[in-house]
Amino acid sequence: MNTLQTPLHRVQGLGASHSGTGHFWRQRITALALVPLGLWFTFAMVGLAGTNEVAVLSFLAHPWNALLMAAFASILLYHMSLGLQVVVDDYVHGAGARIFCLLLIRFVVIATISTCLFALIRIAAST
Amino acid sequence: MADKPQQPGHERPLSPHLSIYRWQVTMLASITHRATGIALSVGALVLAWWLVSISNGPEGYESFMSVATTPVGLVILFGFVWSLSFHMLNGIRHLAWDMGYGFNKVTATQTGSLVYVLSLVLAVGVFAFVWTGHAGYLK
User: Fold this and answer.
1) ipTM tops 0.90
2) What pTM was computed for the model?
3) Domain at B25-131: CATH code
4) Residues from chain B contacting residue A16 (CB–CB below 8 Å)
């Protein structure tokens, strides 16, 4: 590089990604949290397979199960937005299209998290 | 690199060089990790649909189950179960790499193959467990 800028000057403003290592860490921490939560979710889904609506309702209305399902759904969707962002960063090159895709992902994810949490509150209140 | 604009007619090949590289397990596992991640994004939306349908009472639950238990619904469900198994196992492989373990060329290839085998065993195992009548223990 033929430049008089020091390396420090070039990385100011958190470097070329403008976000430092925050995304990397959040993706790893949510991944780690999703291992036990994903195993619990699989245990719950297999346990509810072949039962009826009453069994599913009473399972999800239990405070611990509601809490774990809320945690699983929100962390899953957050991890999903981080992952899809990398896909957009890799394949969508125009600045406008990129910002549009990233905003769309965030809107969908926040709407879906809100929907899941509201559904769980409705289930808890209905029983 | 960006200082010198490319001459027209001399475009460099764009990464990933899928048509140039020989296919390898590590490369395939990386692509599958991303593909299963995208598939599971759809799965997350289905999870929200499932929760909403249950919160809508018996008719809502029936409407979800009538779609989910069709042959196409079951094939998609198997896809989600395998995708979750693969993404979780390969995700653990990635976390091990992040801590500096298993980066050796031979080890990375072996764990890559292992993730494919284990994820298939897990997914088929879950379906076999349900179909042999062992599921539904949360009644």
Assistant:
1) no
2) 0.88
3) 1.20.1300.10
4) none
